[in-house]
TrEMBL record:
InterPro entries: GlycerAld/Erythrose_P_DH, GlycerAld_3-P_DH_AS, GlycerAld_3-P_DH_cat, GlycerAld_3-P_DH_NAD(P)-bd, NAD(P)-bd_dom_sf. This is Glyceraldehyde-3-phosphate dehydrogenase. Transmembrane segments: none annotated. It comes from the Bacteria. Keywords: Oxidoreductase. It comes from Microbacterium soli. Residues 124-285 form the Glyceraldehyde 3-phosphate dehydrogenase NAD(P) binding domain. The keyword Transferase does not apply. NCBIfam families: PRK08289.1. Pfam families: Gp_dh_C, Gp_dh_N. Belongs to the glyceraldehyde-3-phosphate dehydrogenase family.
Length: 486
């Protein structure tokens, strides 16, 4: 007798398929330095339910529905042919194979030829100078991306001496986070050698008050990229102190750079990075969130002028309770007040996107939430557009354009700020909030000002290090113009 598959049975089948994927995904990463994803959504580190959920999510975003059986078949075939270090989009491989008319192994060998037999690249040492909100998230991302060890390698953290049990406290802050949850893995300490051990990675803790006096080579660190998370020095002269230390090759600031310092927003102007750029800035979280959306809108419709209003979660430079503060208004309690403050994000856009110089103004309101912010973009366009046209364009840009790592898109009447904690994208367009009246458009862009920004910073570090693996299938670069996104 035949029986219909019940929803419960169907779920159990999905669970079984996802469970079989987990060791394949992990093994490819550990043994071959292969990172697998579905249309840009990483599979590495996901739970059984996480793998099922990401299959549903890519379908909701407008991609062709991907069956778990097809994903599993490609993962098993990848394990068989053993490609070298690469970033592989399994969903696109499934689609390509379906259209090829060839056997799976034959198709993959041809499509992944650039990664077959590829030798692992030399690891690049990274040092985090400062271990606050951004520093700890960068540590989490770098540790998670370790793979077989041929890419970026977190070697040390530099902080000022805080207490006798400083090492234990720093490790505890890496392990536990009130906003982003518990670290996925194990964190231990080696007090004899002053090291944090996170998922097997030994990370040296160095105490210093002066970035120019450290001999990193004494810890086996050479030609390192130092990521300055303190914001204490923000121009080339100040940040050049790091280059006086032995073992440092380059410096990246995780704050807006001043003077002539090149501010990089990945996806916008990272192609301007040259080997001669020894000191760079990764701009601000807000600049990273809004610049890709502004670039997309400017290319498709032209921006005559605009105003950016940021509704920003409070930060560590504000007071918990009313107290003296050198800045205006920021002395009032961050957890009890909305605080009007200044932002340089609108002007900073022009550092990465010069064609918008002089066209944008900006203001900011700090609000009593610990993470995730919202940018409201009031734009006057050269070419008129309807709400549906703008939304459809930005949705497709998030899926197919060169800015798909930066721009995400959501349409839900239920989402609120906490739903975007942990987003890998620089900014997420809230389509249901879009307002369009001919040439006047208002866009609402959510962004995880901690984690989303940290992902952008890591992308910049990869460009500086030349360590990003080959991306396969090769991405077809599509112009952002609305008529070109099909």
């Amino acid at each position: 007798m035949e029986h219909d598959v019940t929803p419960s049975d169907d779920w159990h089948i999905k669970e079984e398929l996802a469970e079989r994927m987990i060791p394949l995904i992990g093994g490819l990463n550990r043994e071959r330095d292969v990172v697998t994803s579905l249309h840009g959504h990483r599979l590495l580190g996901l739970s059984t339910t996480g793998i099922i959920e990401v299959h549903e999510r890519v379908a909701q975003l407008g991609h062709r529905r991907l069956e778990l059986t097809d994903t599993l078949a490609v993962l098993e075939a990848l394990r068989t042919i053993g490609p070298g270090a690469a970033s592989l989009d399994v969903a696109r491989l499934v689609e390509g194979h379906a259209a090829s008319g060839r056997g799976l192994i034959e198709y993959l060998r041809e499509e992944l030829a650039p990664a077959l037999g590829a030798e692992p690249t030399e690891p690049v040492d990274v040092v985090l100078y400062g271990f606050g909100r951004i520093g700890r998230l960068l540590a989490r991302i770098l540790i998670a991306h370790k793979g077989g060890g041929s890419g970026l390698r977190l070697r040390a953290i530099v902080v000022r001496k805080g207490a006798e049990n400083d090492l234990v406290k720093r490790a505890s802050l890496l392990l536990r986070d009130s906003v982003h949850g518990r670290f996925e893995g194990t964190v231990d300490v080696d007090e004899v050698n002053a090291q944090i051990i996170a998922n097997g990675s030994r990370i040296q803790l160095i105490h210093s008050d002066d970035p120019g006096t450290i001999d990193y080579t004494a810890y086996g660190i050479h030609d390192a990229i130092v990521v300055d998370n303190t914001g204490r020095w923000r121009d080339e002269e100040g940040l050049s102190r790091h280059l006086r230390s032995t073992g440092v090759a380059r410096v990246l600031l995780t704050a807006p750079g001043k003077g002539g310092l090149k501010n990089i927003v990945h996806g916008i102007n990272d192609s301007t990075i040259t080997p001669d750029d020894r000191i760079l800035s990764a701009a601000s979280c807000t600049t990273n969130a809004i610049t890709p959306v502004l670039a997309a809108m400017n290319e498709a419709y032209g921006i005559v002028r605009g105003h950016v209003e940021t509704v920003h979660s409070f930060t560590n430079d504000q007071n918990l309770i009313d107290n003296f503060h050198k800045g205006d208004r920021r002395g009032r309690s961050a957890v009890l007040n909305m605080v009007i403050t200044e932002t340089g994000a609108a002007k900073a856009v022009a550092r990465a996107l010069p064609e918008l110089a002089g066209r944008l103004t900006g203001s900011a309101i700090r609000v009593p939430t610990p993470d995730v912010s919202l940018a409201v973009l009031h734009l006057t366009l050269e070419n008129p557009a309807t709400r549906d046209e703008v939304n459809d364009y930005l949705r497709r840009a998030s899926l197919h354009s060169r800015l798909r790592q930066q721009i995400d898109y959501v349409e839900s009447p239920e989402v609120v700020s906490t739903d975007f904690v942990g987003s890998h994208r620089a900014g997420i367009v809230d389509g249901l909030a879009t307002i369009a009246n001919e040439r006047d458009v208002v866009l609402y862009v959510w962004y995880d000002n901690e984690y989303g920004y940290s992902c952008q910073v890591v992308r910049v570090i990869e460009v500086m290090a030349g360590s990003h693996p080959v991306v396969l299938p090769a991405r077809r670069e599509v112009r952002l113009h609305a008529d070109a996104l099909v």
